[in-house]
Amino acid sequence: MKPLTRLIALLVCGWASMGVLAAQLGDSPYRSELHRADLSGAPGMEVIASIVRIKPGETAAAHSHHGIEAAYVIQGAMVQYPGQAPRLLKTGTALFNLRDVVHSGFTVVGSRTLVIYTVHVVDKNKPLYQPPAAPAH
């Protein structure tokens, strides 16, 4: 078994045995938190590991984070951004979203649920998900 495959299997098994922690305010309804810990050596920062499952027809709202998000697509699916053709988000894709950069805003289309393992390194005591700022008038 490849090291990455072994890591994913361990993470999924750990998630199944731990149960799912309660969602927090400022959270996504598709996220199941696996673990949360203070980031050693960085006061005011924490690390959060989660599984995100977005079913066909569901939309991942555009958002940003108060820190960095790294993600790995465990099960790929077809996604569609507004005004664009559907595209495949492939299994095995690695994603990286920087602090305060708006991302997502797509709908899962087709028949497969999108499953992503995420790790956030974020400011402690702030909402994990931040909606985009309203346009200035």
Describe the protein in words:
The chain has 137 residues and is mostly beta strands. The protein has one domain (3-123): Jelly Rolls, CATH 2.60.120. The protein is built from one helix and nine strands, in the order H-E-E-E-E-E-E-E-E-E. The strands form two sheets. It has a five-stranded antiparallel beta sheet, covered by helices on one side. Strands 3-8-5-6 form a four-stranded antiparallel beta sheet, with no helix packed on it. The chain is globular.
Secondary structure: number of strands: 9
The fourth-level CATH homologous superfamily is Jelly Rolls
Architecture (CATH level 2) name: Sandwich
Order of helices and strands: HEEEEEEEEE
Going across the major beta sheet, what is the strand order?
Answer: 1-2-9-4-7
Oligomer: single chain
Q: Number of helical runs?
A: 1
Percent helix range: 10-25%
- The poorly predicted ranges are 7-25
Strand content: 35-45%
Rg calc: 15 Å
The rough form would be described as globular
Q: Using the coordinates above, name the CATH class.
A: Mainly Beta
Look up the CATH topology.
Jelly Rolls
Instruction: Count structural domains.
Output: 1
Major β-sheet profile: 5 strands, antiparallel
What is the gist of this entry?
The protein is mostly beta strands.
How are the elements arranged and paired?
Blueprint: H1 3-18, E1 31-38, E2 45-54, E3 59-60, E4 67-75, E5 77-80, E6 87-89, E7 94-97, E8 106-109, E9 114-123
Antiparallel strand pairs: 1-2, 2-9, 3-8, 4-7, 4-9, 5-6, 5-8
